[in-house]
Prior knowledge:
Layout: H1 3-9, H2 13-19, H3 21-40, H4 42-67, H5 74-96, H6 98-127, H7 134-153, H8 158-185
Helix pairs in contact: 3-4, 3-8, 4-5, 4-6, 4-8, 5-6, 6-7, 6-8, 7-8
Amino acid sequence: xxxxxxxxxxxxxxxxxxxxxxxxxxxxxxxxxxxxxxxxxxxxxxxxxxxxxxxxxxxxxxxxxxxxxxxxxxxxxxxxxxxxxxxxxxxxxxxxxxxxxxxxxxxxxxxxxxxxxxxxxxxxxxxxxxxxxxxxxxxxxxxxxxxxxxxxxxxxxxxxxxxxxxxxxxxxxxxxxxxxxxxxxx
Length: 186
């Protein structure tokens, strides 16, 4: 089988991954660099995450408040207003009290990492015929372990753990993406 016919036989996700392997590797290096920064300064990384979440909530609340003017009836206007106010209030809390927000963010992070582990398992089973897809399963198993570590260490370790765990997770995700990109390139 020639190289041309081998690449022609790839279909669906395999062809996309092969064409975009450079982007996978660039994305992997960014993940790994951010992971190193988060591990070196876990407290700063944790505070940065809390403040970022606060600003995202504030902007989301503003979008809800602006969508009030698009009409749709009194019930829609009331609900959009209430949701917007709740988002803005939550965002302001995170921005003004990031240390207090880290406790709840730690639990949210555990849930998100658990969901990522489940989705990575699905991705592995959908792409298991592609060379190097086992790295997706490795990433999923690591995410399951990381989620368990976050849950068991809460709340005493939330101040330092969120930055460290996010950093480690970014490193592993970057490593998995790099390995997957390199192996799919061949």
